[in-house]
Amino acid sequence: MSTVTSQRLGNSVSEVGGGNPKVFGIALGRKLLGQFYYEGRDYEFNFSKFWAGSRTFFDCPETGDQILWKVIQTTLQAKTEVEMACNKDEMPLINYGSPDDYKRHTRLWNCGNGYGTVGLYERRGGWRLIDEVKAGSVSCEYGEYGKENNQAGNA
User: Cα(144)–Cα(107) distance, rounded to whole angstroms?
Assistant: First the structure.
């Protein structure tokens, strides 16, 4: 739902996902990719496309009762600000084992009832708000390989 027009968006989707990619066997550290298809216009935030000036800042704190995602992604032309939350009492804690029988996640939270906002901006002199979208029933996942105190997530 657009907070600018108060209308439902029928041709929009936003996705942020992350991990620890490797190039030639060398881990690059925690990275996020994002894409926002907004009413027929595509905005991509991909760290590997350095020519686009893509940058990401994120924090994924875990409180006593919630998992929170705060992600800001920019390129030379666009910016998104994502703030999502899930209530832990509504999230199953997944005991995930991989097909090779190795348990890479020690704690993996999952939900389909996240909620929050996605702000979309375009650079026109300064950052100009295109829309702020209220989202519900968001699919969220939170976990990190080999960490007891998880600090990364996907929304």
Answer: 8
Integer Cα distance of 80 and 64 in angstroms: 27
Kindly report the pTM of this predicted structure: 0.84
Give the pLDDT score at 14: 94
Residues paired with residue 124 on neighbouring β-strands, in sequence order: 126
Nearest to 133 by CA among 121, 118, 147, 143: 118
According to the model, what pLDDT value does residue 86 have?
96
Rounded Cα distance, 41 and 35, in Å: 11
SS3 for 50?
A: helix
Residue type, 87: N
Question: Among 61, 54, 7, which Cα is nearest to 34's?
Answer: 54
- How far apart CA 71 and CA 77 sit, in angstroms, is 17
